[in-house]
Amino acid sequence: MRAHNAYLKRQLEQISDFVNNNGGHSIPSVNSLASTSSNPHFSYGTSSNRPLEPPSLEREQYTHEHINNAQPTQHFQPLSQMEKMMMSQTMVNAVTEIIRLIHIEEPMWIKSSIDDRLVIDQENYEKSFTNISHLKSPSARIESSKDVVVVPMDARNLVDMFFDTEKWARIFSTIVNEAKTIHVLESMDTQRQNFSQLMYEQLHILSPLVPPREFIILRCCQQIEDDLWVIADVSCHHVNIDFESPTCSKRPSGCLIQALPNGLSKVTWMEHVEVNEKVRTHRIYRDLLCGGFGYGARRWTVTLERMCERLHLSSISVFPTTDFAGVVETIEGRRSVMNLGERMLKNFAWILKMSGNYDFSQLSETNSSGVRVSVRVNSEAGQPTGLIVCAASSICLPLSPLEVYNFLTNLEIRHQWDVLCHGYPAAEVAGFATGTDDKNRVNILQTASTAEDADMMIIQDSFRDALGGMVVYAPVDLNTASAAVSGQVNPSGIPILPSGFIISRDGHHFTSPELEDGSDYSKSLLTVAFQILVSGPTLSGDLQIEESTTTVNTLITSTLQRIKVMLNCNEGK
C-alpha cells in the first residue's frame, strides 16, 4: 500500500505540474487521491492530457441498423484540464468502490423483500461511502442489485465489448437504445486493456408506456490482476452539458470480469442508481420499475448470457444437432438467417420508443394501456421504403411468462390469432437454435395457404429467459427468403419490417421461476407491436394517415382480443 500510494503521489505531482503550467488551476490534495486505493492489486493510469477535438453531437439522420451509435441532441464543449482532473478522481473512487462492494457480503448486501435479489443496505452504505445525492426530490428512490453469471466468451473480448459502443449496444440491444462515446479520456491499452471515456447512453424497457432513462457516464476499465478486470460506470456531473434535468443518476456501478478456462468468463454485475421519474409510471409497469427489477443487474446478466450463447452458435462451422436445416443448405445461409433474426430483434426493440405517438385509449386503464400509434417515413436500407405506421399496446395477463411464450410459439394454433396465416396452419421449413435452450431459435415458416399468398414466408426470431421473452417475426416474399437462405447476400441490406411480442414478469414477488410444485404463479406483461407499410417511396398528397392509423389500431386490438379469448383471459383479468 505504501508503494502504491507513492506511485499515486508521483502521478499527481506530474498532473499538478502540467495544470500549473497550463492555467494554474488548483488540484485535489495528495491524501484525498492516495487514500482512495484500498486494493493492493489496483492500478489506475492517469488520463491523457492531450488536447481533444470534441466530436460534434448534433443529431443527424441515422439508419436503424446503426441506431445504437446514434448521437444525442446535446452539445458538448471541449473538456478543461480541471474537468479532466475531477473525472480522473471520480473514476478512481468509482473503481475502488465497486471492488469493495462486490467483495463485501452481509451486512452491506441484504435480500430484497420483493423478489429475494441482493440489494444494498443503504444505512450501511452511507457509513462506508460518501456519495453525494444528485436528485434532491423527496420522491427520488434508490435501486441496487447484484448478480453473477458465467458466459461463453473470452474475457478480453468481453472487455473490448465494453469499450466499443457499437459492440456494447449490439450485445444489449434489448436494453441500450442509444450509445455514443463523447470523449476518450484514456485510449485502450492493448496490452492491459485499460481505458476511460465519457459517454452518453439511453436505456429502455420494451414498452412505449415506459420512457427511456438517459445518462452521461464515465466508463473506466482497469486490469487488476492477470485474469481479472473491473469495469466502472458512474454518472458525470462535472461537465457543462446542455442536458435536460436528469431523472436518473448512476452511482458507481459495473462488473468484475474474471477469465476462466476454455474461453469462459465469470461476470459479477452490480447496479446502483438514483431514480426520480418525472412522469408517474403506468400502473401495469409500476411494480416492475418501482421494485428495481426492470433495470436491475439480473436483466443485464441474463441478456449478456443469452447474447454470448447466440454469438457462439452463429460462429460455428457445422450444423448442430439442434438445428433443422430444411431449405437452408449451407453454413453461410444459416449464418445469414441468424444475422437477419438478430437484426429483426434489434429493430423491433428500437421502434418501441415511439416518440411522437397518437393514443387510442378505449381499452381499460387497469390491465391494458390503450394503443399507441407512431408514423414515420423510411428511406433507409434494411427496411421497406415509404410511410410506415407502428402500433403498440401492453396488457397484463394472469399467466406466467413461460405459458404465454409457449402459446405464441405454438405453430399448431398460430393461425387462430395471426392474420399473416390467413386462417391456414403454419409449418417450420428451417430452424436454428440461438441458445442452449432449444426453444430459443430463429425459424423460417410457411403457411399451407391458397395460391394467392403462397409466395410469402415468415421469418421469426424468438427467445425466452428468466425474465420473460420475445417473439419477433416478419413476412417476406420468396425472393427475399431465397436471398436470406442463400448466404450470398449481406443480410443487413435485406428489407424487412418486424412485428411481434415482448413478454415480461410483472414485478410482483415470486420466490423462484419454478416453485416447489413445478408451477409458476407470476403474472405477465405482454407488449405487442405491429408495423405496416402504408405507401411506397412516392407519397401522394391525398394520403389518409388517420385512416391508416385507425386500421392498424383495429388490427392490434382484434389480435389481442383473440389471444385473450384463446388464453381464457377475456373477463378483465
| Helical proportion, percent range | 25-40%
Largest sheet: 9 strands, antiparallel
How large a portion of the residues is in β-strands, by DSSP E? 25-35%
Describe the global form: globular
Sequence stretches where pLDDT stays below 50 over 5 or more residues: 22-74, 361-366, 511-518
How many strands in all? Answer: 19
Separate helix tally: 12
Question: Largest beta sheet: what is the strand line-up?
Answer: 11-12-13-19-18-17-16-15-14
Gyration radius, in Å: 25 Å
N→C terminal distance: 61 Å
Q: What is the average of the pLDDT values?
A: 79
Class by SSE composition: alpha+beta
Could you provide a short overview of the structure?
This is START domain-containing protein. The chain is α+β, with helices and mostly antiparallel strands and 573 residues long.
Explain what this protein looks like in three dimensions:
Helix content is 28%, strand content 27%. 42% of the residues are buried. The chain is α+β, with helices and mostly antiparallel strands and 573 residues long. α5 (155-163) crosses α6 (165-171). It is globular, with a radius of gyration of 25 Å. It has helices at 2-21, 30-34, 81-103, 122-128, 155-163, 165-171, 283-290, 297-315, 331-351, 401-408, 478-486, 545-566, and strands at residues 109-111, 118-120, 141-151, 176-186, 195-203, 213-225, 228-235, 248-250, 253-259, 265-275, 358-360, 371-378, 386-397, 426-433, 441-447, 456-465, 468-477, 499-505, 524-535. The strands form three sheets. The protein has a nine-stranded antiparallel beta sheet with strand order 11-12-13-19-18-17-16-15-14, with helices on both faces. Strands 3, 4, 5, 6, 7, 8, 9 and 10 form an eight-stranded antiparallel beta sheet that branches. Strands 1-2 form a two-stranded antiparallel ribbon. Residues 22-74, 361-366 and 511-518 have low confidence and may be disordered. It comes from Brassica napus. InterPro entries: HD-Zip_IV, HD-Zip_IV_C, START-like_dom_sf, START_lipid-bd_dom. Keywords: DNA-binding, Homeobox, Nucleus, Transcription, Transcription regulation. Residues 80-313 form the START domain.
